[in-house]
């Protein structure tokens, strides 16, 4: 009977867990709709701005007067990776996949003899990066624990800190790592260079063709000087929006799987409970019948 009592308690415990995972799945699904809409609405502007900046950058000859965000420092030794992750777990492999992509990029750079450091946005990536690369490689962190939805002001704050470090010569190249939201079941970890801007050829995919005669007022370098800081902030903002949608999509999937697994466990435990209960009842009946025959 003690075994039956233990099984009953365990079944009740799993049912309570199932209620929690089911509720978390519903909350994640509700939040996902808004996060996905925000991410999709932010893509056209960020992509177009990136294309315009890249197109303008391909038109100028880099020199001493060129904006530093496109000219760079003249070196390629020190790399900063801005890692955007979440503050919470229970989202499957969402954060793990981002960190895995960052590790792969960092290890490739280290193998080339480069110096690599990290600036983290969201706290989930920090422990893993610290374990593999050391705490001294984490040069800064932007706290998102109180942030319900990413805002452009948050992205501007991160961009301002990154650009300040660039201006003071702390690094030569900056990369942005985040999870590109594709669907509820698919999030693509992405690492892309944001400083300095990479000029693209006019025939690259997504870049406007330069065959038409266009005159800029003011000139390209003045326009770039105004657009480049905004572009850094916009790309970081897009990464934060993509991350939020990816997090809720991954969490919804993880909680759905957890709910299904809890249901399977409840079924198995219920079968085991019913079998033991039936065996106990049968044993009691046999004892009663044997006692009656003995009389």
Automatic annotation (TrEMBL):
Keywords: ATP synthesis, Cell membrane, CF(1), Hydrogen ion transport, Ion transport, Membrane, Transport
Chief localisation class: membrane
CDD domains: F1-ATPase_gamma
InterPro entries documented for this protein: ATP_synth_F1_ATPase_gsu, ATP_synth_F1_gsu, ATP_synth_F1_gsu_CS
Membrane topology qualifier: Peripheral membrane protein
Pfam families: ATP-synt
Biological role: Produces ATP from ADP in the presence of a proton gradient across the membrane. The gamma chain is believed to be important in regulating ATPase activity and the flow of protons through the CF(0) complex.
Entry-linked HAMAP family: ATP_synth_gamma_bact
Subunit structure: F-type ATPases have 2 components, CF(1) - the catalytic core - and CF(0) - the membrane proton channel. CF(1) has five subunits: alpha(3), beta(3), gamma(1), delta(1), epsilon(1). CF(0) has three main subunits: a, b and c.
PANTHER family in the cross-refs: ATP SYNTHASE GAMMA CHAIN, ATP SYNTHASE SUBUNIT GAMMA, MITOCHONDRIAL
Similarity remark: Belongs to the ATPase gamma chain family.
Protein name, as recorded: ATP synthase gamma chain
The organism of origin for this protein: Sphingomonas humi
